[in-house]
Q: What sequence folds into this?
């Protein structure tokens, strides 16, 4: 029996460029702090210029300044409430006016309210879905049209492990994150083959959101987590780079769990 001919491997230089984002522009919502700030920094470290949208204009500007000083990449900051259709249209137009292109979109803006479902007000319930679900829809609709016209793009939706598993006191948040995971799957079909759409589902990451937990709850989480700790915001950089870059050129429609093994229990 003759051995089948081996297919050629990519050359070493091309392989080393898999994560290279030089010349690209990444737009990160909620990029002024927490996970968004960390991911924006990671993109810039690999050569991307960055647009930061945030309801806190000062935080967005500070992030852009930090990126410019630390990486030499360009950055632009715009105030935006992603649940507001007019604000999204204005911010995306401003971003395209500044950078002329958006190659990577990260739908990261979000917040949480922790209490039993029966104690929620309608306004609180609506606020979570307005930011997480409607915000993801509005941003993707606006930027997705640009990406389709250009013939390429990568969209990363920040979901949560709570979109995969249940926990008490977070029903509206968990439902919103589950909706984002399903939106990711559907959008990956609708925007294929030139635009890839994926989600990252973080577990318990040390951010201003998770610091709302009482100390005893934080300790209980660490005691029961397989890796025995909260994740760090910087630990989202690698997964985000993977999904934003050509390293994941055959990956779309998936939700990447970054939860320290929590959902494996």
A:
């Amino acid at each position: 029996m003759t051995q089948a001919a081996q297919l050629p491997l990519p050359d070493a230089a091309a392989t080393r460029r898999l994560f290279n984002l030089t010349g690209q522009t990444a737009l990160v919502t909620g990029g002024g702090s927490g996970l968004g700030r960390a991911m924006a920094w990671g993109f810039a470290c690999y050569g991307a210029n960055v647009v930061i949208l945030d309801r806190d204009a000062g935080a967005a500007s500070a992030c852009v300044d930090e990126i410019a000083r630390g990486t030499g990449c360009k950055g632009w900051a715009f105030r935006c409430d992603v649940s507001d259709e007019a604000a999204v249209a204005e911010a995306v137009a401003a971003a395209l006016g500044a950078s002329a292109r958006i190659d990577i979109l990260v739908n990261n803006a979000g917040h949480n309210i922790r209490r039993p479902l029966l104690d929620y007000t309608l306004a609180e319930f609506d606020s979570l879905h307005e930011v997480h679900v409607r915000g993801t829809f509005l941003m993707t609709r606006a930027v997705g049209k640009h990406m389709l016209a250009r013939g390429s793009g990568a969209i990363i939706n920040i979901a949560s492990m709570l979109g995969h598993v249940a926990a008490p006191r977070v029903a509206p948040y968990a439902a919103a994150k589950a909706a984002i995971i399903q939106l990711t799957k559907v959008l990956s079909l609708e925007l294929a083959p030139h635009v890839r759409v994926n989600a990252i589902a973080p577990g318990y990451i040390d951010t201003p959101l998770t610091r709302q937990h009482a100390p005893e709850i934080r300790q209980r989480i660490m005691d029961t987590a397989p890796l025995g700790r909260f994740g760090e915001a910087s630990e989202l950089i690698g997964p985000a780079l993977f999904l934003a870059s050509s390293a994941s050129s055959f990956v779309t429609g998936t939700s990447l769990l970054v939860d320290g093994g929590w959902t494996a229990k």
Observations:
- The helical segments are 12-16, 34-45, 57-71, 85-99, 122-150, 171-190, 215-224, 237-244.
- The chain has one domain: 22-260.
- Strands lie at 25-29, 49-54, 75-79, 104-107, 153-158, 195-202, 255-258.
